Amino acid sequence: MSGIDLDAAIDLCRTGDLWLFRGSSGADRAIRGVTNAPVNHVGMAIVVDDLPPLMWHAELGQRLPDLWAGKHQRGVQLHDLRAAVLQWGHRYAQRPWLRQLEGPGGRDAGGVTREMEDAALRTVARLDGTPFPSTARLAGRWLRGRAPRLRSGRGTDSDLGAELATAYCAEVVAVTYEEMGLLPTAKRANWYDPGRFWSGDELELTPPYRLGGEISVTLPAAPSVEGASTSRLRSAASWVTPWRKRATTARSSAE
């Protein structure tokens, strides 16, 4: 599939699908230069029950409401998917792509189980609101993620039982994928950068899961992103309250 419009892309989205973005600003080029990646941002779709499709990612901006926290904040956030893609496409001048997660039996057969969704919810509950690092710390984290391990097993940064002091977009996706059982835990979370989730990097997921190729997404004319999200913010509490309960139940069961 070479390209589709935003509405069609959102209709296709399921939990675990990835959104990748490439921009032309100085910061975008700096991220791609340091990481040698073709893209500079990645987020993960969460589509659960009758909730609207959501984007789970980390960013510096706070123009959109974080639907988990019910307020505007920076760092790791849960956004309305459509509003997030439009903001990155129009306000940040980023080109978007969609990569679909394929499970046992292929895409049509699904594959993300309720247990995997619950693991994603626990990650949202744990990491939402985590601050975004400065550019210098971002580069440092990425470089440290490629340093040789001093001991076997998981590195401190990828220990899923500990809170991340700061996080950036690829770490958020990597940790969530690890929690869902989609990625092995041999790598530190800060080993990942946005380009690791681009098809050219041939990232290996836990079999039989795989990511499909990039689908270019065409955006409609620029809307008022803030205006489009106002009504969603008003009803965010009613959306998220039962979801928080599910996350709490899932956490208790896991313990």
TrEMBL record:
Family matches, as InterPro entries: Papain-like_cys_pep_sf
UniProt superkingdom: Bacteria
Record's protein name: Guanylate cyclase
Organism encoding this protein: Pseudonocardia ailaonensis
Gene3D superfamilies, per the entry: endopeptidase domain like (from Nostoc punctiforme)
